[in-house]
């Protein structure tokens, strides 16, 4: 079974799902309201919503006969934290590569005045 973060990245990989999340950032909405701007069927939107819900990015609230979707508080923060950790690792690796290349090419910041 996939881990939570993998499901989140899978969900975010699709532009329609990212657009749905952007719409939900403005407030909760029904399937019909979410389907309207895309020109796709409500069942197709429902499939996108299921992926987002399985990833833990959105949640459903039942109000009378309506099922309203909304962002799950903190869900994007979990993805952002994972990306920040990865960015830190890459920054560290690029810094080490830069230092190595400066030594190998004989260029240093003091020599170049940079």
What labels describe this entry?
elongated; 2 domains; 114 residues; mainly alpha; 2 strands
Radius of gyration: 21 Å
Level-1 CATH class name of the largest domain? Mainly Alpha
Number of helical runs?
A: 6
Shape: elongated
Category from helices, strands and their pairing: mainly alpha
- Overall mean pLDDT score? 85
**CATH superfamily caption of the largest domain:** Winged helix-like DNA-binding domain superfamily/Winged helix DNA-binding domain
Return the CATH architecture of the largest domain: Orthogonal Bundle
Helix content percent band: 55-70%
Query: What proportion strand?
Result: 5-15%
Poorly predicted regions: none
Whole-number tally of structural domains? 2
Got a strand count?
2
Which topology of the largest domain does CATH recognise?
Arc Repressor Mutant, subunit A
Terminal residue distance = 50 Å
Major beta sheet, strand line-up? 1-2
Give the quaternary arrangement of the chains.
single chain
Order of helices and strands: HHHHEEHH
Main sheet summary: 2 strands, antiparallel
Textual characterization of the structure:
- The protein is mainly alpha-helical and 114 residues long.
- The protein has helices at 4-12, 15-24, 31-35, 42-54, 75-105, 109-112; strands at residues 58-63, 66-71.
- It is elongated and about 70 Å long.
- The N and C termini lie far apart (50 Å).
